[in-house]
Amino acid sequence: MTTVVIKPSSWLTTGIRVEKVNNLNLFKFTEKLGLRMQELLNRKKADSLTPEEAAELEAIGELDVIFSYINAMIASVG
User: What domain of life (predicted)?
Assistant: First the structure.
């Protein structure tokens, strides 16, 4: 069995945007990547994820954790 690995950095040019919120520039998912994450979460709830989709969801989740951390750091100094 081959393990599928998707790197969060694969979305650097297509899945990330910067949005101004209360005078802070915060990192957010693009609408397309946000919708994809929701679709994968729904498939996970239905227990119908493929191994490739599970890897994709894990990578998007990791990117979400990174954004949350960076945005918290920005907010704390802003």
Answer: Bacteria
What Å distances lie between residue 23 and 9, 58, 75, CA to CA? 26, 31, 10
What does residue 3 show for φ and ψ, rounded to 5 degrees?
Answer: -85, 130
Q: How much is the pTM?
A: 0.86
Residue 1: inside a domain, yes or no? no
- pLDDT tens digits for range 26-54: 999 999 999 999 999 999 999 999 999 99
The residue to which tokens 């191994």 are assigned: 51
Domains: count for the chain: 1
Task: Give the range of the structural domain holding residue 53, as residue numbers without chain letter.
Answer: 8-77
